[in-house]
Write a structure and sequence with these properties.
It is a single chain. The protein has helices at 3-29, 32-48, 58-71, 107-115, 122-139; strands spanning 76-81, 90-93, 96-106, 141-150, 155-166. By secondary structure, the protein is α+β, with helices and mostly antiparallel strands. Helix 2 packs parallel to helix 5.
Length: 178
């Protein structure tokens, strides 16, 4: 077994534990588990992206997030997705812009399947929070990541950046906000 395969197997075992933990938490505290997981993910996204290059461009922000994930050895593949009926990769409407993201090699989805736990629960929301925290640091805006489709082979999500909700102390802290 090569180093990457061994590292992935080790990570998969940790993710299986997280799947079991998520299942237990969701059973114990119900719907609150998704909110708690979202906030934990948001804090992690902000922590990991502290000091990352800032940008006002959503596509560049996604490249930065990918770099941040690689820097912290997170094996989580996503890519922008443009359906044939969409004029451009990024859609703008008023103060919001959004981009569709496809997650094909998702350790969370794989762990949930292996453990036999449903998708779209607290672990998925933890990663939604991660993106929210990272976008906050990198772009200076609040955002949301909405699950449009959770499937066996890939998940499709919509990342929406709300340019009306600029984080006031964004530039004062060098891109990092609390």
């Amino acid at each position: 077994m090569n180093d990457i395969t061994e590292a992935r197997a080790s990570l998969q075992e940790a993710m299986n534990f997280l799947g079991a933990l998520a299942s237990g938490i969701e059973q114990a505290i119900g719907q609150s588990a998704t909110s708690i997981s979202f906030l934990a993910g948001k804090r992690l996204g902000m922590q990991f992206s502290t000091g990352a290059p800032t940008t006002d461009n959503i596509e560049q922000a996604l490249k930065t997030i990918r770099d941040v994930l690689v820097k912290f050895d997170c094996l989580w593949h996503f890519e922008p997705f443009k359906p044939h009926d969409r004029a451009s990769m990024v859609a703008c409407q008023g103060d919001e812009e959004d981009i569709l993201l496809m997650y094909s090699d998702c350790m969370i989805r794989q762990s949930l399947f292996k453990f036999g736990h449903a998708q779209q629960g607290s672990l998925c929301n933890m990663m939604n929070g991660f993106f929210s925290g990272a976008i906050r640091n990198i772009m200076g805006y609040e955002s949301s990541l909405t699950i449009l489709h959770a499937g066996e082979n890939a998940c499709l999500k919509r990342l929406t950046v709300n340019r009306k909700t600029h984080v006031d102390d964004f530039h004062e802290n060098g891109g990092s906000s609390s």
